[in-house]
Amino acid sequence: MIDERKELVKRLSEFGYIKSENVMHAMEKVPREEFLPEENKSYAYVDQPLPIGKGQTISAPHMVAMICERLQLEGDMKVLEIGTGFGYNAAVISEAMGKKGHVYSIERIEYLAKLAEENLKRTGYDENVTVIIGDGTLGYEKEAPYDRIYGTASAPYVPEPLKEQLKVGGRLLVPVGEQAYFQDLICIVKKSETEFKEKSLGGVAFVPMIGKHGWPE
Ligand code: SAM
């Protein structure tokens, strides 16, 4: 599967989704098949989202690459992810940052969170990725503030706790928009405790973010 992975990374680079050395290295290194249920492992290097159970999906590789690039990761960052799924994106972020960085990832569905923990342990990312079961629209106060926060599910508006838990100078990415349609990937840079610079990075399609500051269950 390593050849298929390398081939996919090459295409993602040619299409401009992968731009930097650390993201290329991470996408080449993390085995996506280890973050998929048995029946979908053979599709690991097709560039599309795939079902992981409970009505949820693993994000498409180009979307994972785009998020990693837009986060502008550095080696020693503290990152918060909303929506662990099976743990793939968190593993790629961790690999891109190296051993000094840490990813805290929140998943609301316990079944997925447990499997993500197993996947991360088997692939060696469990030391630098912590999975938390809970409502990610509340953020994760215990480890705040974060250098980077990103959501892999779409909310009706940017959840306020995520803005609060971002460091000054930090960057937040969240898909915002109607559930059944394309959403805007919103990028927020925190300029000061009270000032935020916001822009849209274009259309994306994610599953709904369900929670107190998201969509109702
Ligand atoms: N990050 C995943 C990956 O690596 O492929 C993608 C996960 S999937 C597109 C989005 C996930 O967000 C689902 O597993 C869903 O259960 C989760 N989710 C939705 N609302 C949430 C919330 N409020 N808090 C935490 N997780 C949530």
TrEMBL record:
Keyword Transferase: yes
Any one biological process term the GO annotation gives: protein repair
Keywords from the named record: Cytoplasm, Methyltransferase, S-adenosyl-L-methionine, Transferase
Gene3D superfamilies membership: Vaccinia Virus protein VP39
Short name of any one Pfam family annotated for the protein: PCMT
GO cellular component, one term: cytoplasm
InterPro entries with a match to the protein in the record: PCMT, SAM-dependent_MTases_sf
Gene Ontology MF terms in the entry: protein-L-isoaspartate (D-aspartate) O-methyltransferase activity
Top-rank lineage group of the source organism: Archaea
The keyword S-adenosyl-L-methionine appears for this protein: yes
Residues the record marks as active site: S59
Subcellular localization, as worded in the UniProt entry: Cytoplasm
Catalytic activity: [protein]-L-isoaspartate + S-adenosyl-L-methionine = [protein]-L-isoaspartate alpha-methyl ester + S-adenosyl-L-homocysteine
E.C. number(s) listed in UniProt: 2.1.1.77
Family: Belongs to the methyltransferase superfamily. L-isoaspartyl/D-aspartyl protein methyltransferase family.
General function of this protein: Catalyzes the methyl esterification of L-isoaspartyl residues in peptides and proteins that result from spontaneous decomposition of normal L-aspartyl and L-asparaginyl residues. It plays a role in the repair and/or degradation of damaged proteins.
Name assigned to this protein: Protein-L-isoaspartate O-methyltransferase
Species this chain originates from: Methanobacterium bryantii
Gene (UniProt): pcm
